[in-house]
Design goal:
single chain; mainly alpha; N-utilizing Substance Protein B Homolog, Chain A; two-stranded antiparallel sheet; 10 helices; globular
Length: 206
């Protein structure tokens, strides 16, 4: 059973500010990670979605070629896996402020920015500016405007499945079998990021 994205906690529904960051992995000094780390993460997300490839294989090769140090590799890995795991929630966060579907690279950048804003201990200004800096110039205004709104706007999740970033049918089936409270708590725990190791050759394993 897989997931795209989720904040932790047994009570997913309700109002809370978008800059509330649920407990989760804490990469070393994420706000000081090189801007190139975010560029690698965005490129990896675009490539993985375009080719429908395995994240660990595609990202591993990109990290091997990136020249990033270990700290930035860990940050890239957290961004990519986090955006994949929490994709449904991230898209909900940004789609509130979009009038049309953006290009793939802008969509990936918005997910990366929203992930930092909502789930990581990255200061809002750093998450926004460092992400905007690595997107094509023609898209920077839109990405900047949307991420600033994500950073300052409260979130009213439409349902548990969106916040936990699982397909509706999974939440419905487990809730029917276990009861809603137990099911939602279990799904939140199952969507917690595993410990990830990046080998010297760039291959990623958990």
């Amino acid at each position: 059973m897989s997931a795209e994205s989720t904040p932790a906690g047994p009570k997913p529904a309700g109002n809370k500010p978008a800059n509330h960051k649920p407990a989760g992995p804490k990469p070393a000094n994420p706000s000081s990670a090189a801007p190139n780390a975010r560029a690698v993460a965005i490129d990896a997300l675009v490539a993985i979605e375009k080719d429908d490839s395995f994240a660990n294989l595609r990202l591993g090769k990109m990290l091997e070629r990136s020249g990033l140090d270990d700290r930035d590799r860990r940050f890239v890995t957290e961004l990519v896996y986090g955006c994949i795991r929490r994709r449904r929630a991230l898209d909900y966060l940004v789609d509130r402020f979009l009038s049309s579907d953006p290009p793939a690279i802008a969509r990936a950048a918005l997910r990366v920015g929203a992930y930092q804003l909502h789930y990581l201990e990255v200061p809002d200004h750093a998450a926004v500016s460092a992400t905007v800096d690595v997107v094509p110039k023609r898209l920077r205004g839109m990405v900047n405007a949307v991420l600033r709104k994500v950073a300052t706007s409260p979130v009213n999740w439409p349902d548990a499945a969106t916040e936990l970033s699982y397909p509706d049918w999974i939440v419905e089936r487990l809730s029917a079998e276990l009861g809603a409270d137990v099911a939602l708590e279990a799904l939140a725990v199952m969507n917690t990021a595993p410990e990830v190791h990046v080998r010297d050759d760039g291959y990623i394993q958990d």
